[in-house]
Fold this sequence. Notes:
By secondary structure, the chain is α/β, with parallel strands linked by helices. The chain has helices at residues 3-6, 9-23, 42-52, 81-86, 93-104, 108-124; strands at 29-35, 63-69, 74-79, 142-143. A 4-stranded mixed sheet has the order 3-2-1-4, sandwiched between helices. The protein is globular, with a radius of gyration of 14 Å.
Amino acid sequence: MAARDFLSDKDKADILVAISDAEAQTSGEIRLHVEPRCKGDVLDRAAQVFETLAMHKTELRNGVLFYLATQDRQFAILGDGGINAAVPEGFWNDVKDTVIAGLAAGKAGEGLAAGIRLAGEQLSAHFPVAEDDVNELSDDISFG
């Protein structure tokens, strides 16, 4: 199955709304990348995608990538340096657990949307949205 077909049109729409809702609470930038295979270690691959999507170019270094390799059943959340310097250890654990529970239940779209919303809530404490906030990165789901 192609990565683009892993999520239904409704799932994709729900995820895009979740990204918009999350980014309304924080200056952080959230992206989702879906591909069939994870080439190597999941965190290393997520870092490659992070760079390819130029997520490291946000002003506050507060980009967050949700990375999913569908056929290899691999998932990772990767935050940029600004986030990692500001948040406590284990910051992403609840978000990751939420997404993995949705994936395990066969509800990938719901799990990803819930995890993205939770990420927005948690990020808002460290990176609140400013009045002059600019959406620095595309909110579109990318596919490999």
